[in-house]
Amino acid sequence: MRSNKKLLLAAMIGALALSGCSTISNSTLFANAYASKSDGAYRLPAIPVSKVSREFRRQEVNYTGGEKVGTIIVDTGSRHLFLVQPNGKAIRYGIGVGREGFEWSGTAKVGWKREWPVWTPPAAMIKRQPELAKHRGGMKPGLSNPLGARALYLTKGGGDTGYRLHGTPEWWSIGKAMSSGCIRLMNQDIVDLYERAKPGAKVIVR
Questions:
Q1: What keyword terms does UniProt attach to this protein (predicted)?
Q2: Best CA proximity match to 180, nearest among 94, 92, 96, 73
Q3: Number of independent structural domains in the chain
Q4: Burial environment of residue 50 by CB neighbours within 10 A (0 to 12, 13 to 18, 19 or more)
């Protein structure tokens, strides 16, 4: 049993080294991060944190990479998003990522941001799921909208990549590969990231 624990710890350290961040020590959870809260015309429901693994809850961690403050790093392997902070720190969020066949990696930037965005399924998605055709003109904002409370739109070379960092009402999907390529966060987390991230910020997806 002790040998298995050592192997597990070694695997965790290796995975964290790939992301350039360390959460083995000095990680700090944000208190009451997932309580119910009013947000414009809506009220975000509380997230049952007891059902969310600690590793996917918002927390401040040590950061050992070389990216500048404000950079967003998406580690699809560990299912974490890091926002680089001053003084060797980063804020880490749990994420959901693209399912098999929809993964992607590379660099982009935050082109623009929207509160309670309209969701418009792309043509390719409607082709795969014809029942979504009713939203061809856009699904109005709300608690059931797939983009959740906020969206950060990723661009590259001046054009829209089609990918988003966005919220989701499906908090249970965090830590899993279920999306069509976009990176999803719990609604309370995307609201927090939205307030901190600047338009033009570099986004690195690994």
A1: Acyltransferase, Cell shape, Cell wall biogenesis/degradation, Glycosyltransferase, Hydrolase, Peptidoglycan synthesis, Signal, Transferase
A2: 96
A3: 1
A4: exposed
How many whole angstroms separate alpha carbon 34 and alpha carbon 188?
6
Phi, psi of 17 (to 5 degrees): -60, -35
Task: Determine which helix (DSSP H) or strand (DSSP E) holds 156, and give its type and residue range.
Answer: strand 150-156
**Residue 69: closest CA among 55, 89, 53, 51:** 89
Residue ranges making up the domain that contains 122: 21-205
Domain membership of residue 130 (yes or no) is yes
Classified as helix, coil or strand, 56 is: helix
Confidence at residue 24, expressed as pLDDT on a 0 to 100 scale: 36
Q: In terms of DSSP bridges, do strands 183-186 and 177-179 run parallel, antiparallel, or are they unpaired?
A: unpaired
CB-based contact 162:123 (threshold 8 Å) = no
Which residues are designated catalytic?
Answer: 166, 182
Intervals of the chain under pLDDT 70: 1-26, 100-102
In a domain, 90, yes or no: yes
**101-114 burial, b if ≥16 CB within 10 A, otherwise e?**
eeebeeebbbbebb
Digit-coded pLDDT (tens) for 21-49? 444 346 899 999 999 999 999 999 999 99
Assess if residue 176 is contained within a domain: yes
